[in-house]
């Protein structure tokens, strides 16, 4: 016996016939597609608008901050300009302090220093040149005779050779001289004449003691407070 066909007529169903023309179906499909694209375009425009609005807001905030900083800078410049007189006074004070330090470093009792040096030189020798090589600054914290002062380079000339070691030792023991040492020994003629006498020149360095300062540029001692 043959099996019933699966494509048989189904009884009891309502017949359905699509009588809408194909062109109308396509028109409705296009309309739905157009609506979807319009929604996408509107969403994109909204997103662009939000981004533009956010960027504009950030720009306004940055402009306001820049204006605030510019105003602060202007105020600081005005304040600095008002302090220019103080800056000039501080600069002048620094220059004067530097000048005072330089003056203090070379303000020696030269006659006393040269006299102390010449007193230990042998007969027939003399100091022919001297200059401050390194100025001191006038230190405190000890006895002036025990503190080093400026370094003085001097030239001692003699017609006969000197016992320079003995001279240096004598200088080290002289009053007002902190230390002494020899630098150079030269032998030279007084003139271009080869028969002219020969002079022996000794370049010495002495370190004067701080007691050789005149003290004219030393800072003034504060006045003692009056007792009630």
Order of helices and strands: HHHEEHEE
Radius of gyration computed on alpha carbons: 52 Å
Strand proportion: 15-25%
The computed structural class is: alpha+beta
End-to-end CA span: 147 Å
Q: What would you call the shape?
A: rod-shaped
Instruction: Give me the side-by-side strand order of the main sheet.
Output: 1-2-4-3
Largest sheet: 4 strands, antiparallel
User: Averaging pLDDT over every residue, what do you get?
Assistant: 77
Q: How many individual β-strands?
A: 4
Keywords, separated by commas or semicolons:
228 residues, alpha+beta, 4-stranded antiparallel sheet, 4 helices, 4 strands, 20% strand, disordered C terminus, transmembrane
Task: Write up this protein.
This is Tfp pilus assembly protein PilN. Keywords: Membrane, Transmembrane, Transmembrane helix. The chain crosses the membrane at residues 37-58. The protein has helices spanning 22-82, 84-106, 110-118, 164-172, and strands spanning 125-134, 148-158, 177-189, 198-209. It starts with 21 loop residues before the first helix and ends in a 19-residue tail after the last strand. The model is unreliable at 223-228 (pLDDT under 50). It has four helices and four strands. A four-stranded antiparallel β-sheet has the order 1-2-4-3. With 228 residues, the protein is an alpha+beta fold.
